[in-house]
Design a protein that fits this description.
Blueprint (H helix, E strand, L loop, with lengths): L5 H8 L3 H14 L5 H7 L4 H14 L18 H13 L6 H12 L5 H10 L17 H7 L3
Helix pairs in contact: 1-2, 3-4, 5-6
């Protein structure tokens, strides 16, 4: 019967598949005494990947196997300004389309965003289309359409 170690317990509790793979790499190298390049081949990974994660484990322990935060490109518009624009859209009683939102952002900030990014922002803010898409027009049955019509 196999004796469970700390690494085995953490492996069993982990839900992220990428981190589980890194823990498996470390366990095979440290406990099973396999060569790092052999483990990389078994996991279908390159040597550089294996050396990178093993080095991070040696420097920071099991915490080093976690993903580091990524900063990305900083936004062109401050968060406070975008929050005000979002609130203005939320309190609006009328519907709007992406062009109106794009113009509103441009008027308030001087930054012009692409159409696709406007849709991303609206989705991130939790807004949905107020006008149904054309594909939903004929989904109701004939009886449902008749019952919905005004008499």
């Amino acid at each position: 019967m196999r004796h469970y170690t700390k690494i085995d317990k953490i492996y069993n509790q982990e839900s992220n598949a990428d981190i589980k793979e890194r823990i498996q790499l470390v366990r095979r190298i440290t406990q099973d005494k396999q060569h790092i390049e052999d483990v990389a081949n078994e996991l279908h990974r390159c040597r550089a990947w294996a050396y990178k994660w093993y080095k991070r484990y040696n420097e920071n322990g099991l915490e080093g196997l976690q993903d580091q935060p990524r900063t990305g490109r900083p936004p062109d518009v401050p968060k406070e300004t975008m929050l005000k624009i979002r609130q203005e859209l939320a309190y609006s009683n009328t519907g709007w389309d992406f062009r109106q939102v794009m113009d509103l952002i441009y008027k308030k900030t001087g930054v012009r965003y692409h159409e696709v990014h406007i849709y991303r922002l609206l989705h991130k803010w939790g807004f949905k289309s107020k006008v149904p898409k054309k594909r939903f027009v004929n989904t109701a049955s004939t009886n449902e359409k008749k019952s919905f019509k005004k008499e």
